[in-house]
Amino acid sequence: MKKLPKLVLGLVALLAVGGCWLVDDISFGDPPELFLDLGPPRPPHISKVEITNGDGMTVMSGSPDRNGELEARPDLTDLDGTLTIKSTWSNGNVTTHTVTHMPDRPISLTYNRDLRRFDVTERQIPSSSTDEDAPDGRGD
Fold first, then answer.
1. What angle do CA 16, 21, 23 make, to 5 degrees?
2. Of 32, 69, 103, 140, which residue is least crowded by CB atoms under 10 Å?
3. pTM of structure
4. What average pLDDT does the chain have?
């Protein structure tokens, strides 16, 4: 009977340590370069998305999660200033939108149901120590 409390205590400790390992696996780092927000699904809703850049390269593809969100981590150089968004809707319809943005920048796309279009939000690139070397952004 004395072994049971030790066993329970050991299992609790093991679960606590295991929980720490799980938290370590969650990425709290940089936000994705391309973030899509469709909002909570309501009929009809976008069930699949494929986004290509100006060169025709796929930079995002997939189904949004239950919150209507999808993210991708393409190279910033692949975000060339033009994105074509092919949306497959839950009712079978397919729509295509083209948006422009500042090249080589992380962006968020939000679908505006009222206007039936995607709005682009350009995000700042996280600063690094090399930014101090060329404060005016011009070469010599």
1. 95
2. 140
3. 0.67
4. 78
